[in-house]
Amino acid sequence: MNVADKKRLLREMLFARRFEERCYEAYVERKIGGFLHLYSGEEACAHGVLEAARPGQDWVITGYRDHIHAIKCGADPKKVMAELYGKETGSSKGRGGSMHIFDVEHRFMGGYALVGGPFPLAAGMAKAIKMQGGDEIAICFLGDAANNQGTFHESLNMAKVWNLPVLYVCENNLYGIGTRIDRSTAVVDQYKRVAGYDIPSAQEDGQDVEKVIKAAKKAVDHVRSGKGPYFLELMTYRYRGHSMSDSNAYRSKDEEREWSGRDPIIMLRDRLIKAGELTKQGYKALDTEILDEIENEIIAFAEASPEPRVDELKKYTFAENDPWVYGGGR
Amino acid sequence: MAELMYWEAIRRAHDEEMAHDPMVICMGEDIGVAGGTYKATQGLYAKYGAERVVDTPISENGYTGLGIGASFLGVRPVIEIMSVNFAWLAMDQIFNSAAKVRYMSGGQLTAPVVIRSAGGTAHQLGAQHSARMEKVFMGIAGLRVVTPSNPRQAYGLLKSAVRCDDPVYINEHELMYNMKGEVPDDEYFMPLEGSEVAREGRDVTLFGYNISVHWCLQAAATLAKDFGIEAEIIDLYTLSPLDRAGIVASVRKTHRAVIVEEAEAAVGVGAEVMAIINEECFFELDAAPVRVSAVNVPIPYNHKLEKAAIPNVGDIVAAVRKMVGK
Ligand SMILES: Cc1ncc(C[n+]2csc(CCOP(=O)(O)OP(=O)(O)O)c2C)c(N)n1
Ligand SMILES: [Mg+2]
User: CA-CA distance, B279 to B10, in Å (whole number)?
Assistant: First the structure.
């Protein structure tokens, strides 16, 4: 990766962090409702994997911790924030909320709230890709605890049997809400679990974005070349609680400190500084620029946007004026 | 016009839609090489191949979700779930993904899947193979529910369901696959919202759907012959949405309503039809509407108990006579 790309990536990841932290504030101010799951600490996972893929062309799907995946695919952060504010200008027109960001134009196929729900949907997207003959792939990001759902096993089995072009990325942050992985899961190393389906897999440090990119390149190449599914496990950590209603009481301060010492943004920043490609002041300026953009453009847009009209409550339940509902005109 | 069996009509609709659009596929357990438990996909594997006639593992939630995901990208899967009793396992994907994705994406995505499944109480299949589940699907916003009572409807509803952009659940019946009926030779599409008058009458309306339409027809013949009562029969072949206008029109004509359902009364089709009558034309009624429904028990194995659990033609005749006072 060249220096310009590294700097762009640093900006993207810092933007992601600031975006999520601003969501936190907006939630406390009650501008954002519902459940809010933040991605702070895990930035290198989505950024690294999608850096190795083709965001906007490959079909991406994930769970409820979805803002950053959408943005990395090309979603306009203004529309994502407007969605969190429940506004008509939001990416799902205010009908979805934080857990249901969609941007189909950029092939971000959504955030889903049922743990494990996207596993088969991703396999299905891969089935469609295969039928339609493109060289895109489907990429599914989910957490570690999701792997205890039946859909995980059902989908891996089908993906292998039908040799589907799907990459499953496990963002292993060691917890499913407040339950540590070793208390819920017989085999703690997730990449080992797919051996039962004869699917190749790897485990990688999910805090070092350069390592993630390297591992993801291998994974993406495998899937894109027609060799079938692949499973990539990334070891990571979320800084915030599972959602806003969670205080992290189940984690030790030592553990949290240990992980924050391996912050994906700081690690990349320090590498660039050490290589003489970035100064401390340069980084500060970048941060200020991002904070200004979020405040003056993104939050301002969300604040100023109108809410959906109540007389459009039923819109989007069914297709509008679908002729086949009326017998196809025959 | 050809006489086809119910399964042949479904098979023909599959075949025509697969020939018409290369993105139409069918999926399910034993539907390909084996030809389908009810023969609804017989011969299609040989004609269209394994990519489009997909024998799935026994993973109801998994393959239903896979079909839904494929539909996001323009594939039109027709998913056969062998029995509605097994459809519970796929409920997560039907309910949480297919039915909601259009709404929660603000209209960006849709899941044009068709899910077909065989329900009903057949011959001593026991509690875990005898469920009638249409009431559960009817309560799902964003899902269309239809239920054919004859081969013509089975053909025309599947044709429209495949082309429609919404997810559609087709409720078939274990006992009806060998039923014969006329199906137009020309291509034919049924509306996905509506009802049909299966028999004209003036004294009472019998509302039925799927197999209960046939019980109503038999009851109406007895009522006419033995008691001089002319029953009108409304075939509610779309359960969601229900045809409010059709229901109201018939009640305005006969002023009496009996709803006949193979399922238990609780939270069911009859309850819903009664509510519509109350809301739309209560003062048209000459008598309080009644339901002829199943007893609220897990379906027993013993043949006498099984029969006693499910309504029959005699129950309908008795209910009408009581209502009319003859
Ligand atoms: C089917 C289902 N069961 C339970 C929940 C509640 N729930 C939401 S997130 C979560 C933990 C998931 O953990 P993991 O898959 O590791 O993802 P993470 O949140 O750590 O990113 C649970 C139990 C749910 N949303 N869906
Ligand atoms: Mg987790």
Answer: 36
